[in-house]
């Protein structure tokens, strides 16, 4: 039986009991938790409060599969104490300065994580994301492939891969050696107007699974062919919706993804 998780960022300021209600109502029993400032637990509170959150969620049959957070030692320690195996991060350097120089500095930062990964037995997963940084699967693998996959993994994101114009089969092949998680959301570009010089303005529009650039059926079929057995994470990101509407869409997308994975 496959495992499915939902990223609870849209409901990060809900009381824990309400978070449990909404996750359960969508049909999930696993979550990716935003261990960030402004969420139910912040990085500064991680060692004290994360185990209690894990207990309360566990009592409701919900597992924290990974956290989206920072890489301070206290976050590693809190994850280890709570049996959370992975921290998700992204490489998004500023637009200023030379890109390759920024990449080199980021590689040095990753080197400092490796002793923590080994000490606490917690992996760091680096996710691709449109814009400056690891925008494509190949960009992500320029960084990730230099490290031991026991400690540093690759997170393939269907929406951002599609926005980058990638073929899903090729992208999955590129990151397969280090693939530790797949994100199933979807997106397309929409024109929102024109600049003063007359050129078009496009922005990413995050939409239901069937409506974006990446073919979920093709991506799922290729992952199944290669033997993917990790969690299928649903980031629940949709443009312009209320939090309740996001929950409804995430439930509907989960139903479709399940039919692809288990059908």
Question: What can you see in these coordinates?
Answer:
The structure is a single chain. The protein has 9 helices and 10 strands. It has a single domain (4-262), classed as TIM Barrel (Alpha-Beta Barrel), CATH 3.20.20. Helix 1 (16-26) links the parallel strand 1 (4-7) and strand 2 (30-34). By secondary structure, the chain is α/β, with parallel strands linked by helices. The strands form 2 sheets. The chain has an 8-stranded parallel barrel with strand order 1-2-3-4-5-6-7-10, surrounded by 6 helices. The protein has helices at residues 16-26, 46-59, 73-81, 99-120, 137-144, 158-163, 168-175, 216-226, 243-262; strands at residues 4-7, 30-34, 63-68, 86-90, 123-127, 152-157, 179-183, 186-194, 200-207, 232-234.
The shape is: globular
- Please provide the count of β strands: 10
Number of helices: 9
Radius of gyration: 18 Å
Structural class: alpha/beta
The neighbouring-strand order within the major sheet is: 1-2-3-4-5-6-7-10
Task: Give me a quick take on this structure.
The protein has nine helices and ten strands. With 263 residues, the protein is an alpha/beta fold.
Structural topology:
Layout: E1 4-7, H1 16-26, E2 30-34, H2 46-59, E3 63-68, H3 73-81, E4 86-90, H4 99-120, E5 123-127, H5 137-144, E6 152-157, H6 158-163, H7 168-175, E7 179-183, E8 186-194, E9 200-207, H8 216-226, E10 232-234, H9 243-262
Parallel strand pairs: 1-2, 1-10, 2-3, 3-4, 4-5, 5-6, 6-7, 7-10
Antiparallel strand pairs: 8-9
Helix pairs in contact: 1-9, 2-3, 5-7
